[in-house]
Each structure stands twice: as structure tokens, then as C-alpha cells.
Design brief:
InterPro entries: ABC_Transporter_SBP, ABC_transptr_periplasmic_BD. The chain is α/β, with parallel strands linked by helices. The protein contains 13 helices and 14 strands. 38% of the residues lie in helices and 16% in strands. It starts with 10 loop residues before the first helix and ends in a 5-residue tail after the last helix.
Length: 332
């Protein structure tokens, strides 16, 4: 779920906009009017020249490898080697530029309709055969495979793997720049920030005595895994106004059941329910967990899609909203 903004104008404002547009075009020479009406370059609010998507090129970016890459023209045939890149392309309204993905790409649903160029293992021959003008990879991709693609004369931009919203905004800007979607990137970041600010205002009004502690379980086979600091989940809990019981740990953390029980969370969130039958029931029936507040008060929740809290992409905001409603249903 992407953030949906509605723009409401009263009739007077609407007429003002229309009349202003008429006056601007009327003040142009015929040639200038044609240029404006045909979607060419125009001046922004500060009198600066605004460029069309195509005119924004060439662009030079520094990718996750620290390499500076210059893209001469807006790419029309892009291959994404990671689901997170694919979601971001979709969120930037650049789907018509996407040519192929991997078999791991599950969002949006129509990603399955595109040709596949491998999974976690890149099918280099398939990538080259598709003759893309740009490949968006990630730090998780095999460097040797990326080198082979580049050796075939195909440009590769490696997108960094981030764990904070601020770093995610930087990724949005980079991908927007290489795709010629700067405006869309700016709008996505602004809407994301606006929703975060809205949620933070709500959490600021939650009384200290009502704050809850949360255990986010991302795996349970056989030892338990959760998320500590330096993860999207931890930042989401901060925004919501909840306390991560593993927040003093770093990254993805493994716990024994004995150690996990001592954390005594008020709420338990399960991210793997889509892959395990009755994951919630399993937690509620753990004999050692019966005195934990989350189990005593039946406050164990399953996420239908863990990617909304772990995969860097526009749906992270949906993850924040979903966790907020689970944890503080009376406030959100």
C-alpha cells in the first residue's frame, strides 16, 4: 500500500489555477506556447529551467561499490536483479522501463509476467541476451556475475542495501536519478516523511505508562531470531513509540528460548506466519512462555507479508502502519 494523498481544491482555487495557466500561455509567443503545450522544458517556481526526464541526462552516480557511473541517456530497457529494486522501480512509476526481473520478485504481482534472469544466482547469459541498457543490481549479487555483465558492455549500477529510513531515501534518490524519475523520487520521499511525521505525532501523545515492549520474531527453527538495532524494524518501533526488547543488540540476533523468555514482552510480532502453518498457535502453546504478558493477554500477531518490514522499498511505510495498528490499536 503506497501512501495516497488527496488534493482538495475549492472552486475558487480551481478557477485561479485555470486562469493563471491561460494567462501564462497567452503571454508566450506562439513558438513558446507550443513548447509549453508539447511538454518541453519550462520554468519552475523559482524561475529555474525544469528539465524533462530525457533532458536530465547524462547523469553520474556513485553506486554501492564506490564506482562513479555515467549514464548518457534515459534507459528504456532495465533489468532488476533484486526484488527490492523491482519494487522501487514500480513505486517510481518506471514500470514501462523494466524489461526483466528474477524469479524471486513477488511484488507487484505483474512482476511474474516479465522474463526471468535467474534467482539468487544470476543467469548471466540471459541478462546479456536481453540486451538491456541498464542493470540494477545489489550488494548481495555475485560480483563476478556483475563483472561479466559489464564486460559485455552493459552498464551496471549496484544499489546499496540499507537499514534506516534516511539511507533508504538516498537509495530512492539514486534510483530515481538513473531512471530519469527525479520528480517521482522526490514525491515518494516527501510522502514517506509526511506519514512518518504523522505517526510520530501520535506516538508522542502515548503516555509513558502505556508504552509496550515488543519481541519481533523472524525465525524459530530451532533457535529464535529477532531484530536488534540497525534494522528497519527497530526504527519502525521507535517511530511507533514501542520498545524493542532486543534493541540493545545489533542487527539480526539469535536467541535461545531461555534467554528470549526473560525479555518478557508485552507484544509479540511474527514475520514468518506465511511460511509456517499456525505460527501464532505454536507461540501461544509454548510451555515456557505462558507467563509472558504477550501470551497471557493474547497479544501475538502475524504479518501476512514480512517484506513490508524488511525489504527496502516503498512498502516499508505500510510496515510502519501495520505494526502501529497491531501494537497500539486504540491510537492508530
Amino acid at each position: 500500500m503506497y501512501i495516497r494523498e488527496s488534493l482538495k481544491m475549492n472552486k475558487k482555487k480551481w478557477l485561479t489555477v485555470v486562469m493563471g495557466t491561460v494567462l501564462v500561455i497567452g503571454a508566450c509567443s506562439p513558438e513558446e506556447a507550443d513548447e509549453v503545450s508539447e511538454g518541453g522544458s519550462s520554468e519552475g517556481e523559482n524561475g529555474e529551467q525544469e528539465l524533462s526526464d530525457e533532458e536530465a541526462f547524462p547523469v553520474t552516480v556513485e553506486d554501492a561499490r564506490g564506482e562513479e557511473i555515467t549514464i548518457e541517456e534515459q534507459p528504456d530497457n532495465v533489468i532488476s536483479l533484486l526484488p527490492s529494486n523491482t519494487e522501487l522501480i514500480y513505486g517510481l512509476d518506471a514500470w514501462d522501463q523494466l524489461q526483466a526481473v528474477t524469479s524471486n520478485d513477488d511484488y507487484p504481482e505483474k512482476a511474474s509476467e516479465l522474463p526471468s534472469v535467474g534467482d539468487m544466482v544470476i543467469d548471466v547469459e540471459a541478462v546479456i541476451a536481453n540486451e538491456p541498457d541498464l542493470v540494477l543490481g545489489g550488494a548481495i549479487n555475485d560480483p563476478e556475475a556483475l563483472n561479466q555483465i559489464e564486460s559485455a558492455g552493459i552498464q551496471v549500477v549496484v544499489i546499496e542495501d540499507t537499514n534506516t529510513f534516511e539511507d533508504f531515501y538516498r537509495v530512492v534518490s539514486t534510483v530515481g536519478e538513473v531512471l530519469g524519475k527525479n520528480d517521482e523520487a522526490g514525491e515518494l520521499i516527501a510522502s514517506f516523511e509526511e506519514e512518518i511525521e504523522r505517526i510520530e505525532k501520535i506516538s508522542a501523545d502515548i503516555p509513558e505508562e502505556d508504552r509496550v515492549s515488543v519481541w519481533v520474531e523472524v525465525g524459530a527453527d530451532p533457535d529464535l531470531f529477532t531484530t536488534g538495532s540497525g534494522t528497519f524494524v527497530n526504527e519502525m518501533l521507535d517511530v511507533i513509540g514501542a520498545d524493542n526488547v532486543a534493541g540493545d543488540q545489533e542487527g539480526w540476533v539469535q536467541f535461545s528460548e531461555e534467554d528470549a523468555v526473560t525479555l518478557n514482552p508485552d507484544v509479540i510480532i511474527l514475520t514468518y506466519g506465511a511460511y509456517v502453518e499456525d505460527a501464532r498457535g505454536d507461540v501461544l502453546n509454548r510451555s515456557a512462555w505462558q507467563s509472558i504478558p504477550a501470551v497471557e493477554h493474547d497479544r501475538v500477531y502475524e504479518l501476512e507479508d514480512s517484506n513490508i518490514v524488511t525489504r527496502q522499498g516503498p512498502r516499508l511505510i505500510e510496515g510502519v502502519e501495520t505494526l502501529a495498528k497491531f501494537i497500539y490499536p486504540d491510537h492508530y
